Amino acid sequence: MGAYILRRLLLVIPTLLGIMIVNFSLIQFVPGGPIDQIIAQLEGGGDVFEGIAGGGSELTGGTEDSNYVGGQGLPKEFIEELEREFGFDKPPLERFLTMMGNYLRFDFGESWFRKISVFDLVMEKMPVSITLGLWSTLIAYLVSIPLGIRKAVRDGTPFDTWTSGAIIVGYAIPGFLFAILLIVLFAGGSYWQWFPLRGLTSTNWEDLSLFGKIIDYFWHITLPVLASTISAFAVLTLLTKNSFLDEIKKQYVITAKAKGLSERQVMFGHVFRNAMLIVISGFPALFIGVFFGGSLIIETLFSLDGLGRLGFEAAVARDYPVVFGTLFAFSLIGLIVSILTDLTYVFIDPRIDFEARG
């Protein structure tokens, strides 16, 4: 197992390098760089993307000093100074190598437009992502696994039919649409105002007791967590049910029943461990997906300032240190989580040996 882990860790390096090369190369062909943004603001020309849509620029990655949108009315020396400030006076290859050298030291630089380090910026937005990722994943597992097992045991009964219908409806409803429904019903939209609609805590958070802070925290996160859980809940329930159904039909289950074991002993003593292999092993990937992927729309609807909104705003503003810094960090974490997922398989079922596959 040690040799397999070492091989996977070594593969992280070329994989991560490939991700960064592809994304950095694509950026070179995206018009409307940070210098365009600054020039548009200085000249009061509105959104820089209006000029791009009109075909007024052939800019590739913000390096052509003579073709900036709206740049014709500004001194050439001023534009060259902006290029030096942002590092666009250097060739793309040199900029990429410098960036990767800094990233290897986990130096992600400073946001161009917020004047704060990328690391501090991510840490500032982290509480929202931790809240949505952790609680959504835990609730999905705590509800879906018992429900999926119950559906497998009572397969074909009215209970299975009605719950399957409810699950399909829940899966068909987009998370943001369900969020709007929750706001309309319970956050003062048109009916009751039982829950707040802004932030993770109240303005008087510091004045509350410990118990009051806990209640206030859960009061604020109830609706956004429910909205972000609905789709994962549906998928995980059906996955659990189908996994248990496959195991129940196997010969060892029939043998265990023939020996006189009760239904409960067979289910939780023999079937559970095998059936839950695919479900539990996916926990790290599911958590990281919700945690880092975020939901821009849900964060916007509930006025939460998390990583979803950070990524969107950085992409729109062409804040490349934030874009590439978070891409590098999250890709690295994602690759490590994929290794942890494989290790989870081995922990749950020691019969699995990845080294034997060679």
TrEMBL record:
Q: How does it sit in the membrane?
A: Multi-pass membrane protein
Family the entry assigns = Belongs to the binding-protein-dependent transport system permease family.
Q: Would the keyword Nucleotide-binding be found if you checked this record's keyword annotation?
A: no
Specify the signal sequence span: none
ABC transmembrane type-1 domain mapped to chain residues = 126-345
Q: Write out the GO cellular component annotations.
A: plasma membrane
Protein name per Swiss-Prot or TrEMBL: Microcin C transport system permease protein
PANTHER family, sorted: INNER MEMBRANE ABC TRANSPORTER, INNER MEMBRANE ABC TRANSPORTER PERMEASE PROTEIN YEJB
* Classification via Pfam families: BPD_transp_1
**Taxonomy-wise, where does this protein's organism fall, top ranks first?**
Bacteria, Pseudomonadati, Pseudomonadota, Alphaproteobacteria, Rhodobacterales
Q: Which InterPro entries match?
A: MetI-like (IPR000515), MetI-like_sf (IPR035906)
Taxonomy, superkingdom:
Bacteria
Q: Where can this protein be found?
A: Cell inner membrane; Cell membrane
| Alphabetic keyword roster | Cell inner membrane, Cell membrane, Membrane, Transmembrane, Transmembrane helix, Transport
Where are the bilayer-spanning segments? Answer: 9-30, 128-149, 161-187, 217-240, 275-302, 322-348
List, in alphabetical order, the GO biological process terms annotated in this UniProt record.
Answer: microcin transport; transmembrane transport
Which CDD domains does this chain map to? Answer: TM_PBP2
